[in-house]
Amino acid sequence: MSVTEAPPAHPAEEAEVRKPSTRRRLVPYWLLLPGILWLLVFFALPMVYQASTSVQTGSLEKGFEVTWHFRTYWDALADYYPQFIRSLLYAGTATLLCLLLGYPLAYLIAFKAGRWRNLVLVLVIAPFFTSFLIRTLAWKTILADGGAVVDVLNTLHVLDVTSWLGWTENNRVLATPMAVVCGLTYNFLPFMILPLYTSLERIDGRLHEAAGDLYATPATTFRKVTLPLSMPGVVSGTLLTFIPASGDYVNAELLGSTDTKMVGSVIQTQFLRVLDYPTAAALSFILMAVVLLVVTVYIRRSGTEDLV
Amino acid sequence: MSVLRTLRRNLVVIAGLLTLAYMILPNVVVMVFSFNRPRGRFNYAWQEFSLDAWKDPCGVADLCGSLSLSLRIAVWATVGATVLGTMIAFALVRYRFRARGAINSLIFLPMAMPEVVMAASLLTLFLNMGAQLGFWTVLIAHIMFCLSFVVTAVKARVMSMDPRLEEAARDLYAGPVQTFVRVTLPIAAPGIAAGALLAFALSFDDFIITNFNAGSTVTFPMFVWGSAQRGTPVQINVIGTAMFVIAVTVVLAGQLIANRRKSNAGK
């Protein structure tokens, strides 16, 4: 190309720029493809299969057929509504307890720990390193009949009150709703504390000073400054606790009794032991719908839609 | 009266430390009971001190086999989820493309779904396809539910990256590959590492999804679950304690090294 032919060089140059740019336009799709395909095939597609299973009838021997038998949903609810209500109740109570117990600790790490901050953070995450099933089994020892915890609670007549409320039975804690909620609270506390800590840590310490300078008492400062600013942490913490807790069956099975079964247990038994796939699929769909509903309403109400 | 006042002033600290104690207590119990010599099949009541289980941690049939299986699954699930998740995270932060909203919800939904729902529906798929339940079905399931967590962790890091660093690399005539390997990747590394660690922990400790999709394959959490019915060997506590001690040591050592580096850089 000679110097005199300068103008035609321009389109060529443009083409050279455009060629990688069209290739560049495809880059995100290539990056997304494998992972999204994985989620579509192993997360979304199974939901479709489950929806179809839930309206099938038949038996294991004769095989199942889609008969649009929506009664399965109604029957499943009629048979297992106590487990459903229990699941939501236990998960809700555990979430509330996690918030009440977790907030002071998150606050402590964010504002009061000073040079101990990293150590306390490690201690919060450390329990994760031992399998959660082993740790849940440890509660069997801690809450055992005749153990120190039960003895103290008995001496203080706490168990009389909780038994009257229906949380415990016969002056024991194990195999009662209280044990299950205690286990759920314990298992999901880190999921509450970490988001709380993240949002508390972002708060500018000067805001506290400013509130103090304006004669706010520590209580007012907390109510008007700290708590509102930590709301994103409260919202994501409660969701991260409530969602897994509502479907959990490990705590109910290990620490509870047949009277404390949660819906997760029912789904597991129907699927893996009774092999009644339509009922199990219907139950699991109802659980999903309830949780998504609760989550959506909650996110709308709290007004933090951009939390994830 | 002054005692009461100190109590009131430090209410938050006291409440926080009590919560911390509540969180640590089971680990202490697990540790103490790894030195127990239980009477009968269950290790729930203290009898007498013994080092038997520590001397022979694999002395129970299938225990160490299940442990090594869990480790293998966790390693491959971490590799798979980290590679796929990092690619998605880069695409989400760096590029514009169609259906972004749908893709975002597809990534968010697995995290907003009770595990038992995903477990049951995945089993329905496998049963319909006639797949043989075992190592591969568990691995597929683990990559699936770890993926979203990796995306979230890496995305956070890539979003906070200063784009001027990459522009600077390009200005200095680094090609796209060179820019990515020598500038982008090192800066994104902490996010990728955090995602990978999270994936490893989630996979290694997963019970519900594994229980549905493992068939007769027994991972470590499934071994513990089964032993809660059959009888809990002390060796479970030994493994639990060992994992705890190793992990805490690694974390604390990492902290120490990071601190030292920081103070050296300060000089």
TrEMBL record, chain A:
Superkingdom of origin organism: Bacteria
Signal sequence, renumbered to the chain: none
Predominant location: membrane
Subcellular location: Cell membrane
Membrane-spanning parts: 27-49, 88-111, 118-138, 174-197, 280-299
Family: Belongs to the binding-protein-dependent transport system permease family. CysTW subfamily.
UniProt-recorded name of the protein: ABC transporter permease
TrEMBL record, chain B:
Membrane topology reported for the UniProt record: Multi-pass membrane protein
Family affiliation: Belongs to the binding-protein-dependent transport system permease family. CysTW subfamily.
ABC transmembrane type-1 domain ranges (all copies): 67-257
GO biological process annotation, one example: transmembrane transport
Keywords: Cell membrane, Membrane, Transmembrane, Transmembrane helix, Transport
Gene3D superfamilies xrefs: MetI-like
Superkingdom, taxonomy of origin: Bacteria
PROSITE patterns membership: ABC_TM1
Name of this chain's protein: ABC transporter permease
PANTHER family associated with the record: PUTRESCINE TRANSPORT SYSTEM PERMEASE PROTEIN POTI (PTHR43848)
InterPro entries named among the record's database cross-references: Bact_Polyamine_Transport, MetI-like, MetI-like_sf
Localization: Cell membrane
